[in-house]
């Protein structure tokens, strides 16, 4: 099998995306003598969920994503989830800064760039909500530079394409944070795995994992070459399944009890991508709005400045859709093959409470090009249809988790599934997994290597100084972290 002349490893990581890349880089730092094997089905790394055109790319830090600050029935807005997401993203920034400062990875501008994060709403009720959200967030040090306005002139200063052609009498509001970033997770994935490869990690593309079996104290990972069809088994005491939408079916193949009852619900989507360089040059922000009723979190509309493969671009969307595939490069039988006797009850139980999601997805699938362009005009009234092309977005598989009272519940987020003995773990779900991958992998290390974690603590504290603490509880530490990582990563922090 090409690039995989290995029969034994200290750890096997399945999937060549940002999750496996982050874990490989960590283990390379912590155990430089270990032999790690990373297996990727496709011919290139990071092409599926981590790719710049497939991933939301926001650098999710809850500065602009309104779904992280829902309004309660009494009208209150809790900052708790937003703070948690932001803390986790700061952990990622610290780890990336460590790698840059120690010449593990190269020019940070190849994967992360400063892009202001904005929230934009219209209508009195939404304006009132955004004002209360701003008040709740700016009381915390990770958000205290966020500005709020209801003035068209100020909004024009921040995002001229949003105001151009908009009636000055329209009731609007926006928040603006200069601490926002855009992250090309596909480029970052390749840098992380290049570093791990230089440290001795075997990174094998064109290597499809078709089965997982216990072999004594090891796991046997059966791998098929997508080039010549040859079969090989790699043995290792530790396995991580970071294969995006395919993680569910692979964990099912492993037979571990902990995956029983879990299912997945796939959601696809599309973007509109601007083709006019003059328009692209006039917008420098990520402008997020409110989701439609029933919309999944990854379908929150945004007018989005992106940096992909070193080139600046402008996108709008994503528009949700549906496909039974669990991966963009997957099979139309993926969903049906994932239904097992152990999760059938849970899969059936999520349908009645999520009828609004079903209705929303049907409407999105049936939407015409004209209807999609009409949605763009709400954020950019001066948009010209000829300046935009349709691009297929990535595939996401939402977690259906067992629940004691409801039998099954549809979750929006990421979740780690680990065997009781810590020998195998996997990551299910979608956003904000890429942005918070460092925190997720630190959690994974504690689960999979409980006998080593204390010995690793000094090194981890160098890689991630705030590990185990709360930046939000220490304003000085929060501000120092923001400034230090901005300096290391070449970000703007006036």
UniProtKB/TrEMBL annotation:
| Swiss-Prot/TrEMBL catalytic activity | (S)-malate + a quinone = a quinol + oxaloacetate
Can you provide one Gene Ontology molecular function annotated for this UniProt record? Answer: (S)-2-hydroxyglutarate dehydrogenase activity
EC class (word): oxidoreductase
Pfam families recorded: Mqo
The keyword Flavoprotein belongs to this UniProt entry's keyword annotation: yes
**Which cofactors must be present for this protein to function?**
FAD
**Keyword set, alphabetical order:** FAD, Flavoprotein, Oxidoreductase, Tricarboxylic acid cycle
Provide the GO biological process annotations.
Answer: tricarboxylic acid cycle
- Tell me its EC number(s), please: 1.1.5.4
Where on the tree of life does the source sit, at the highest rank?
Answer: Bacteria
- Please name the pathway: Carbohydrate metabolism; tricarboxylic acid cycle; oxaloacetate from (S)-malate (quinone route): step 1/1
PANTHER family membership? L-2-HYDROXYGLUTARATE DEHYDROGENASE, MITOCHONDRIAL
Give the UniProt family note. Answer: Belongs to the MQO family.
What this protein is called in its record is: Probable malate:quinone oxidoreductase
Give the source lineage, highest ranks first: Bacteria, Bacillati, Actinomycetota, Actinomycetes, Micrococcales
Gene that encodes it: mqo
